[in-house]
Design brief:
3 copies of one chain form a homotrimer. By secondary structure, chain A is α/β, with parallel strands linked by helices. Chain A folds into 3 domains: 162 residues, Rossmann fold; 159 residues, 3-Layer(aba) Sandwich (Rossmann fold), CATH 3.40.50.1370; 92 residues, SH3 type barrels, CATH 2.30.30. Chain A is built from 14 helices and 19 strands. In chain A, strands 9-10-7-8-6-5-11-12 form an 8-stranded mixed sheet. The first copy, chain A, has a 4-stranded parallel sheet with strand order 2-1-3-4, sandwiched between helices. In chain A, strands 18-16-17-19 form a 4-stranded mixed sheet. In chain A, helix 3 packs across helix 12, helix 4 packs across helix 12 and helix 5 packs across helix 6. Chains in contact: A-B, A-C, B-C. The interface between A and B is large, with 36 and 42 residues.
């Protein structure tokens, strides 16, 4: 079986961006019975959409929100399929409501894991069948990270990621951004407080990246011990030139009294000097407070005793700096927002959920090609990835779809940096760790910092955890490596 | 936490008809994204509908039944959501069929309890999200008594009760009444036999109240030991002036041979004298036999051995008094109607179920404001209720929604009688029992029969199980009460 | 209770083709609220459709496949109900997609066994309720053999069998045939390889019968030990004059290297002489390879070690005889087709699944009376069956619906042959075994080979496992039988 994998990978090395056995887009169109546009656009990650496209989606959602029942003629005869490999009734109903409002039909598979479809059937096969003729768009929820990326490779019709493990949930992020757009008229330059569990909620991480991309400022008010991880702060800096600063949060009052607040801003240092002093940036007035629930399912018991978790109450909202702040929450909430806050006109979390429908109407109508986006400009450049030509799957993430979907998900990686070489799994985006790097053509392996690595074509790169593994796979050490 | 509850309740005492934290109707309309009529009409109890409205619904259902597929243009772009916290496929499919026949869309959450939506999320929050933008009407099935009443308080869109515990199932009752209307052309004055388990089936109780309200007569033919409870008979008398009489059921033949039949009639005594003799009222000819199944899930084993349960067979239907009687059953049936009766033209139970669709079409089209009711007159006056301002939840019913939905369902009561004071839970309608009654303003408590109680405003009434509890809550006894 | 069954059966003997208690078609129409055509056409078995009708369905499916979204006006206001007593998401979604494409509505009951509908409710009652007013067509999946046949007897609306145990799955067979029609332009005269588990897959048996009926030739390439059963080969011979021959499969290469291939052909012997020699018929060129998965759920562990199961790989497809062969599979597949074959243009299994939608659109539109079949000719004659007038259920099949649906499914049989008398269960088609045969009128029993049996009317035939059972039931032996 191992040999088989190698052969397959070797064949595919001449066609770098294509899983062996997967249909090309042209073939996919044929599978779909002809007629389909051969270039289905997917929504797997928030990174798949350009800022211009997001603005255009917001404008489209505005139209839908104004008259939610006036667009039943938009998608007649079209069908969406909700394939949910883990239950999430709220997300599912939101998408299905959007499709019904557009006049389309809905296929529901709410509990795929208990169904015979998946008894031994690969995700890739299910996607090819459902996307091949049953439905015009697939809404996928899956517990494995990268599952939606895999599905998009095999689907002749658009795939929308409705949550893949803890990796991405792009329509939730779009919904949150759309709410800021509606409530504030813009996103750039806003000051947004992220409060609560900032460590384990990847949805919050996605939201933070998106805020930075729009040029908004972030005030982190973490639960003690659940601060924003360093790798998120680093990516914010690398990708969006965000500067983290110590924040003086005294004006936030009760909300931040037990928290070491941090201010993250894409503003240039010379601009910042106007608002900062020796103590760091001073929080003046906030546009939005985004509360999050404790991700208890990912905590060890020691990290959090729930009784002490941050709680937004009436008196916290009395702080002057929050006078014009809207209160947001992705819901469901538990105790982190007191019921007494519900009646406060600044509480928009139920409106926020309701707006999930028009923004998803916009996404569906756009991906189905029923409504063009106004002046959306060029789409985001899609990420190039490469099959792993030799050896075992280098992805270290046990929740990655490439580890369970072994029949179809050929291990793949994409390049983060060339010097030194840093690569990540093309499905779950987890960075690979490796001790030596080989070339599948020359069958020679190198130290990771060797300059010659830059000469190896991406589709020939092989990653080994140690020299022994490389030798065992039939590779020889480069001159200067002992290879013992 | 207990203190918090008290504070919240105290705040709300100035706004008596409103749960703290719940949106007002105006706010609810805003939550729904504007546009919604601010006065959503709900169907929680059969008592919510006036007789005139029921007659108008029957006429509307007649039109739908005549051409079931001719009304697909009635609700285009409208969406109903089936939120089922316990399974009931028949009820769900009946509602969904009705909505589809009207041209609307359907969202289905058939197993809410196994879904992530409800992991720690309150019913009130779920209702606000689904009613806030996903759906235009909510069909709710819930195991807790009073759940639909609670949902209606929080929903910006109409809530239809599809069964809340064993409390109410108003569309089943409407369907049964509609069948009598179709088969007999009227309901007033009909003689209807209720047979079987009359003790535990609350659906039968609702049906009995409704029959009395329409002026129909009821012949009770109970399974021995499962007679109509006294409190039902009392309410029939109090609310509808129904007189219970011993019935001479010999003409009912086999059907009543082992049963002590009782005749319940809203007719005036002087009218009755025509039909009665020393043995009581004599059953002459019956318009309908309504069979019920044993509510085995609510029996102790001793109360019923199933083999001896009443069974309607061919020869029972040969009784002269049943010559023109239709046979009804809410289904599913088990053995209480023999299969051989199915082919009898008087057996209408399958027709009865089928008519659930047009009557539910009428309810949906009406509540969604798509079809006006002809000359429906004024709606039933809605029941006024009051929050409990201090102390623990006085509702003694462990199945009441107010006991589990503690985050949002503030304990509430409504007044049944003023002298002596009798009050019932505003959710589950169970009457409260209390030893002393306090006033939350004066902080004085009284004996239940004290005349001064009439001077306390309803929103200041507090109920205590005993004097000690009142003292512990900081109340003082009125003059003449020892307060030890 | 036993006596009751006998009485019921005795009554019904005067109305031979009708279950006591079941509505006649006229009554069924009445149950449905009038209006319905009194002659609902069902699809229980592939045998229910004539060849002409199948050709007409294929032409209709061609139109739907050409423009899948252009027919949303075909079934407005119509509703299909998916009643699935065991999960089969793929089949369900395929039917629901078809109904939505036709503009109809869909009711989904995906897990009937866990629902309250079936708690003690008979299938016959559920069908009468759902078919009586909720839906215009019922798509039924059930684990018991013959369940769809039973449902069709009670349903006022068309019933489509979406799989009843391992008995029939006619729309799968129609889909397979439709694929041959599309890919090859005809079915008659094609050479089709059936490969893999030919013993336990009843779907393959149905496909084989249908191929023979169309005049196609079958090359059996079974997994060793899982050959086509003798009774299938015999029926192919009896019903379709198919001649089995030893096949020389050397030209099939790897695919058949471990298999004793057999050739089944409806061709006349004088035609065959052109293609055969001493070694039997030589496989020259194949039109289609139909791979099947191991039916592991029906194997004892000894019959199959999965590692050795037949596997279709790239090099097998290199055989010259397969140059123009399409590869089919009913899906889901496991390892019996290698992923590397997916990209081969001859692999049509994903297209095959996608074509399940237009063929099911054709079936739905036809059965709902929305589209007439062009020149479909006369329908297949429906099978006549007879109630068992006396004694216990003679069907020996423990999975037969007649054994569990005892409240409504009167035991019935149909006659396979008159001399000697051979009869089969009218539900599951399993042949009955009996030692003696009685007449319910004369109360005399006979040996199975007795000539007098031919004089007994079908509706009076009684089957006993032995003489003792007959005597116990009050029957006397015919002259010449000892009856001890």
């Amino acid at each position: 079986m191992a040999r088989m994998t190698q052969d397959t990978a070797a064949d595919s090395s001449s066609e770098p961006d294509r899983v062996e056995g997967a249909p090309t887009l042209r073939e996919a169109a044929v599978l779909a019975g002809g007629g389909e546009a051969p270039t289905a656009r997917h929504l797997v990650s928030i990174d798949d959409i350009s800022l211009q496209e997001m603005h255009a989606l917001f404008r489209l959602a505005d139209r839908f929100a104004a008259e939610p029942r006036a667009f039943a003629g938009t998608c007649p005869g079209f069908i969406s399929a909700s394939l949910f490999y883990e239950p999430s009734t709220r997300t599912r109903l939101s998408f299905e409501s959007a499709m019904l409002r557009l006049g389309g039909g809905v296929l529901t598979a709410a509990e795929m894991t208990s169904s015979s479809v998946v008894k031994g059937e690969s995700l890739a096969d299910t996607i090819r069948v459902v996307g091949g003729g049953y439905a015009d768009v697939i809404v996928l929820r899956h517990p494995s990270e990268g599952a939606a990326r895999l599905a998009a490779r095999y689907s002749p019709v658009p795939v929308i990621n409705a949550g893949d493990g803890s990796l991405e949930h792009p329509t939730q992020t779009l919904c949150d951004l759309y709410n800021l757009h509606v409530e504030r008229g813009k996103i750039e330059g806003l000051d947004v407080v992220l409060a609560g569990d900032l460590k384990y909620s990847r949805t919050v991480h996605s939201f933070a990246y998106a805020l930075a991309r729009f040029g908004a400022n972030i005030v982190c008010v973490p639960q003690a011990g659940l601060e924003l991880p360093d790798y998120v702060v680093e990516r914010l800096h690398e990708d969006f030139q965000v500067e983290p600063m110590r924040a003086d949060a005294r004006r936030l009052g009760n909300l931040a009294s037990n928290s070491d607040a941090v201010y993250l801003t894409p503003q240039k240092p010379h601009q910042l000097s106007l608002f900062t002093d020796a103590r760091g940036w001073e929080v003046q007035s906030v546009d939005a407070v985004y509360m999050t629930r404790p991700q208890t399912e990912r905590h060890s018991g020691a990290e959090l005793s729930e009784t002490t978790y941050l709680r937004l109450e009436k008196r916290a909202m009395a702080a002057e700096s929050l006078r014009d702040a809207v209160v947001m929450h992705p819901l469901p909430r538990r105790d982190e927002i007191s019921d007494e806050v519900d009646a406060d006109p600044r509480s928009i979390y139920f409106k926020q959920a309701a707006r999930g429908v028009p923004i998803r109407m916009a996404i569906l109508a756009w991906l189905l090609g029923r409504v063009p986006l106004e002046s959306a400009g060029e789409p985001s450049e899609s990420v190039e990835s490469y099959g792993v030509p030799v050896g075992p799957n280098p992805c270290p993430n046990p929740s990655c779809i490439s580890r369970t979907e072994t029949r179809h998900a050929e291990p793949r990686f994409r390049i983060l940096d060339r010097d030194p070489l840093r690569v990540a799994c093309a499905y779950c985006t987890r960075e690979l760790s490796h001790a030596v790097i080989g070339c599948s053509r020359s069958r020679i392996f190198h130290a990771p910092q060797a300059g010659t690595i830059r000469l190896i074509l991406p589709e020939h790169l092989v990653f080994f955890g140690n020299e022994e593994a490389a030798v065992e796979a039939g590779f020889r050490p480069a001159v200067g490596l002992t290879g013992h």
